[in-house]
Design brief:
Layout lengths: L2 H11 L5 H11 L6 H14 L3 H12 L14 E5 L7 H11 L4 E5 L9 H5 L11 H11 L1 E5 L6 H11 L7 H14 L4 E8 L8 H17 L3 E8 L7 E2 L1 H12 L5 H16 L6 H9 L2 H12 L13 E6 L4 E5 L1 H11 L15 E4 L5 E3 L4 E7 L2 H14 E4 L11 E3 L7
Parallel strand pairs: 1-4, 2-3, 4-5
Antiparallel strand pairs: 5-13, 6-9, 7-11, 8-10, 8-12, 9-11
Helix pairs in contact: 1-2, 1-3, 2-4, 2-8, 4-9, 4-10, 5-11, 5-12, 5-14, 7-14, 9-10, 15-16
Bound molecules: 5-iodouracil (IUR).
């Protein structure tokens, strides 16, 4: 038990955290002999009392410096995107190679699925051979060869975050804006990212249920990221319906490949909007057509294929196929849409996500939606197909996808790709 931590806990309880308090907490986070009880008490104090901007900036910087850091000197701008997570959000699979094809370097460190949230690493592992573990020399080779990589954080990257995140998970302190922001940004800083677009979602399929909460998180991310020396902007994006037509690891890779091959739709729109802003952060004012060109002329697909090759997957289209499939039909004629949260429940029942950290995932688990937001259907039309390795799970999930269908009225309008942007100089709400 540490006296410094007692002082840090008292200061956090009294909303008076000093730089020395932050230093003590982060040092303890990487010391295996330090007390989980004390760290957990500190997290709860911050969850209840908040953290002043200066202390949150100190925390972000100290967590970023708590382990190994990567640097990518000499070369094109280093850009990245982080999303707070959504259902069917495979934007990273399109965006990283698109930005690479536009000439930027994208060292993307991603996570795995947990609960109802999908994970980019699990999606990529649906491609035969794809290796998400890159040591620093292999990561550098991938950036040189492909312009991008998408890899797991090593346990040496921002190790303070790993410990604090595990404790937040079991102490009901996940939902603290400064703790979320410091967690996300510390890993981006440690990975050497200089220009960061944030995709902050709200809605039934997002971590933040309402717009105001998403706006607060976005403003904190942009302010803290900017204070740490990254150029940042945040998109506020609705997440009441799955993004695009596919949910589940293999299905999402297949949809990403189609978008990388030049097809239109919500995923392309999201990737182009985010890529355009990333280019702007790096100092390049491109229009949508210029940003989208690599999707139409094959350069983005080529960058994806080169990234796969650099990560041990020789054929990007060698994607896991589900052994069992079940169709879902429309109960009635009319317009409709799929609810994001309810669709995520179906994907989870198929085994697309984990029930506990380190648990198994069925990478073949797929929900393919055959209609988009607000489409008209006839009674009995096949509106979705589910698939996975287990026939019983597929039949059960088909019922859950049927329950995710929401009929909408004639006046229904599909949601915008980006509802608002938060810039570094925006007013903090
Ligand atoms: N992703 C992170 O990296 N950190 C967090 O705290 C959350 C999501 I919530």
């Amino acid at each position: 038990v540490s006296a410094e931590l007692v002082a840090a806990i008292a200061a956090a309880r009294d909303a008076a955290t000093s730089p020395a308090d932050v230093a003590a907490v982060v040092a303890a986070s990487t010391d295996p002999t330090s007390s989980d009880a004390q760290l957990a008490a500190w997290l709860m104090a911050v969850r209840l009392r908040g953290l002043a901007d200066a202390a949150a900036a100190d925390l972000t910087a100290a967590m970023a410096a708590s382990g190994e850091t990567l640097a990518w000197p000499d070369g094109p701008a280093v850009v990245d995107k982080h999303s707070t997570g959504g259902v069917g959000d495979k934007t990273s699979l399109v965006l990283a190679p698109l930005l690479a094809a536009l000439g930027y370097r994208v060292p993307m460190v991603s996570g795995r699925s947990l609960g109802l949230t999908g994970g980019t690493l699990d999606k990529l592992e649906a491609i035969s051979g794809f290796d998400v573990h890159l040591d620093p020399p292999a990561a550098r080779r991938a950036l040189d060869d492909a312009g991008c990589f998408i890899a797991a954080a090593s346990d040496r990257l921002a190790p303070a975050d790993a410990r604090l995140y595990r404790l937040r998970d079991v102490t009901a302190t996940i939902d603290s804006v400064p703790l979320i922001a410091a967690s996300i940004l510390s890993k981006k800083l440690a990975a050497g990212v200089r220009h960061l677009v944030l995709d902050v979602k709200w809605g039934s399929g997002a971590f933040m249920g309402d717009f105001a909460a998403a706006e607060r998180l976005a403003a904190t991310l942009v302010a803290l990221g900017s204070a740490a020396g990254m150029r940042c902007a945040a998109a506020l994006c609705p997440m009441d319906e799955p993004l695009g037509r596919a949910v589940g690891n293999a299905a999402e890779v297949r949809e990403a490949l189609v978008v990388l091959g030049g097809s239109g739709g919500a995923v392309r729109d999201a990737a182009v909007a985010l890529a355009r802003r990333a280019a702007r952060l790096a100092g390049d004012d491109l229009d949508d057509a210029a940003v989208a060109r690599p999707l139409d002329d094959g350069r983005a697909y080529e960058a994806f294929a080169r990234m796969c090759a650099a990560q041990n997957a020789s054929d990007p289209a060698a994607v896991a196929v589900p052994a069992h499939r079940v169709d879902v039909s429309a109960p009635r004629a009319g317009r409709g849409r799929f609810d994001a949260h309810a669709t995520a429940l179906a994907a989870a029942a198929l085994g697309a996500t984990r029930t506990h950290p380190g648990g198994p995932v069925d990478v073949s688990a797929s929900v393919d939606l055959h209609v988009a937001d607000g489409d008209a259907v006839a009674a009995g039309d096949v509106i979705a197909t589910v698939g996975c390795a287990d026939a019983t799970a597929a039949a059960h999930a088909a019922g859950l996808v049927a329950a995710a269908w929401r009929e909408v009225g004639e006046l229904w309008e599909p949601a915008p790709t980006v509802a608002a942007w938060i810039e570094p100089d925006s007013e903090t709400p």
